[in-house]
Amino acid sequence: MGKIQTADIRGRALNLKGIRRAFLCLFLVTANAAFAADSVPGKAAIASAHYLATEAGHEILAQGGNAFDAAIAVSSTLAVVEPTSSGIGGGAFWLIHRAEDGFETMIDAREQAPGAAHKDMYLDAEGNVVRDLAVNGPLAGGIPGEIAGLEHLANNYGRLPLAVSLQPAIRIAREGFAVDEKFHELMNYRFKTIKRWPAAAEAYLADGEMPPVGHIIKLPDLAWVLENVAERGAEGFYSGPVAELMVKGVRDAGGIWTMEDLAAYAVKERDPIRTMYGDYELISAPPPSSGGVAIAEILNILEPYPINDLPPVLRTHLIVEAMRRAYRDRAIYLGDPDFVDVPVDMLTSQYYADGLRASIRPDRATPSSMLAGNDQIPEGTDTTHFSIIDAEGNMVAATLTVNTPFGSCFMPPGTGFVVNNEMDDFSAKEGEPNAYGLIGFAANEIQPYKRPLSSMTPTFMLGADKRAVIGTPGGSRIITMVLLGILDFMRGNEPESWVSLPRFHHQYVPDKISAEPGAFTPEQVEALRVMGHEVEVRNSTWGNMHGAMWNLETGKVSAGSDPRTASGRAIVR
To answer: Phi/psi of residue 535, each to 5°?
Structure first.
């Protein structure tokens, strides 16, 4: 592994680091305005999980739309062709950058708990979590936010009417789309649960059986819902005939939604998480996402290390130790900022990271049980992401979800879409893991109208020479995938490299490194085990990352779609 002095890898005096960070922040603010005035990409890049969605985005750009209009087209088309991962029965975060003035914000259209929800709603008489209620069926669903978010994008940032940007999705829902291998694989995983709900079975199955690859699925009910939205905006979803169908369907099957719950839903704009890493500003998702805080915390811990120049085993060890500490803090501190006081400033401060870093031994793993917190706790790729840079330099990093594959698998009759199961992203019981093995405590307990904590991490990296848009689905592994993509970007690599590189992950509990095939050599695995790490090399891969980049020095615009999924597509034109 080679010798390296602790003082060398911890590097840099605090006062010089602070001065450098302040200078870089000021430079980037000034540079934003300058770039907006006299530099544009000239081409647009869209990378998404399905070729029809990528084409839909470019179709809207060709009609005079901007990145935000294209985001509506991509989001709504994914809602049709990728119900495995997102949909209008779910929610989303859209992180946006407006080129004309450098303005950035995150549009929070995360699902929220119904008014009748309470912290013990998934516990049986003995106080145990009934996982089926929290994951499958209408009781698992939070109030959807995606449609409200699409209208907000159109009204506040887009150039075209919402009705125009929805047309590709409406057309595809009516004309149909072909089942691809990913759809087939995830359908197989959820087949028995889908069969429990007649409307979903009728919409997605072929005569009650698994649809073969190539089978054409048409969703006329979903087209009708989207046409209502095109005509009436979000009111066409949250009130009137569509809302009545949703509420009746949910309540008839045992859920607790009301018309008042739908009427009460509102989009929120939130200030992104910001931190400097090297010569780049990280801009990422704030709470109720845990992603931006966790990424900032990890990068702050790693910042003094020459992380991309270290021997592979030491590099992995230090990254894993930073991951471990950030996920510990995720479990303890993070939740909906409208309900709990999330100590964002503390968690993202360099001083806090310095304290965490001081507890890392360069030669030995820190058992998770030794970190302050709860040491009595036990031990997906369903969500979607797309990245857009338009010809004017506007940017969107969007992560959308229904949580697990096909969400709750419940479809209100007559609507054509499945309801999410995001209620499982709350902490149903302190210290109990959810479907992704993530734990939580009081900060993320269920409360009426509260939004569950998320791992979705749409992210920008902005520098004087390059701008990157990155994100991925993947449940609890989203944060670590985005982290590894950022570090690869910092190496000078293109989006095709970020989305392709082998991945590894640690989330505090369970206390082990998970790795994709090929992430480590056998010798590296053994060296990590000697340092005290448990390493599990899995047979399968995870994630579905999509990224885009604008190189301001060369003018090149590039994009990459994860090769792990054949249906994804990155197009620059």
So the answer is: -120, 125
In DSSP terms, 384 is beta-bridged to 400
Same domain, 25 and 75: no
Residue 3 lies in a domain: no
CA distance 534 to 514: 9
Residue 79 lies in a domain: yes
Same domain, residue pair 171 and 250? yes
Are residues 15 and 116 part of one domain?
no
> Residue 6 falls within a domain, yes or no?
no
Read off the tokens for 234. Answer: 């979000």
CA within 13 Å, CB half, 245:
21
Q: How many residues does the chain have?
A: 573
Residue 418 has pLDDT above 90, yes or no: yes
> Do 35 and 167 belong together in one domain?
no
Determine the longest span between alpha carbons in the chain, in angstroms. Answer: 69
Cα 414 from Cα 234, distance rounded (Å): 18
Domain of 328? 11-42+270-381+455-572
Run of H or E residues at 504: strand 504-505
Do 312 and 230 lie in one domain? The reply is: no
Query: 135 and 72 in one domain?
Result: yes
Q: What is the pLDDT of residues 529-567, one digit of tens each?
A: 999 999 999 999 999 999 999 999 999 999 999 999 889
Domain identity same for 374 and 328: yes
How far apart CA 270 and CA 292 sit, in angstroms, is 12
From the candidates 275, 383, 384, 399, give the one annotated as an active-site residue: 383
> CB neighbours (10 Å) of residue 304?
18
CB 435 within 8 A of CB 253: no
- Candidates 457, 478, 487, 493; CA nearest to 544 is 478
Report which secondary-structure segment, H or E, holds 400.
strand 395-401
Are the C-beta atoms of residues 403 and 422 closer than 8 Å to each other? yes
Looking at residue 110, what is its pLDDT? Answer: 96
State the DSSP code for 361.
Answer: B
Query: How far is residue 24 from each of residues 17, 395, 405, 461, 464, measured CA to CA in Å?
Result: 11, 21, 42, 13, 10
CA-to-CA distance for 227 and 34, rounded, in angstroms?
41
Q: How far is CA 422 from the centre of its chain?
A: 13
CATH number of the domain encompassing residue 538: 1.10.246.130
CA–CA dist 554, 153 (Å, integer): 31
Q: In terms of domains, do 30 and 64 share one?
A: no
- Kindly report, residue by residue over 238-250, the tens digit of the pLDDT: 999 999 999 999 9
Residue 5 has pLDDT above 80, yes or no: no
- Residue 492 is predicted with a pLDDT of 96
460 closest CA partner among 146, 90, 103: 103
Q: Is residue 1 assigned to a domain?
A: no
What is the count of structural domains for the chain? 2
In one-letter notation, the amino acid at residue 454 is: S
CA 138 and chain centroid, separation: 23
Residues 6 or more apart whose CB falls under 8 angstroms from that of 471 comprise 385, 386, 387, 397, 398, 399, 456, 457, 458, 459, 478, 482, 545, 546, 547
Known catalytic residue: 383?
A: yes
Instruction: Output the six-digit token pair for 211.
Output: 């649809």
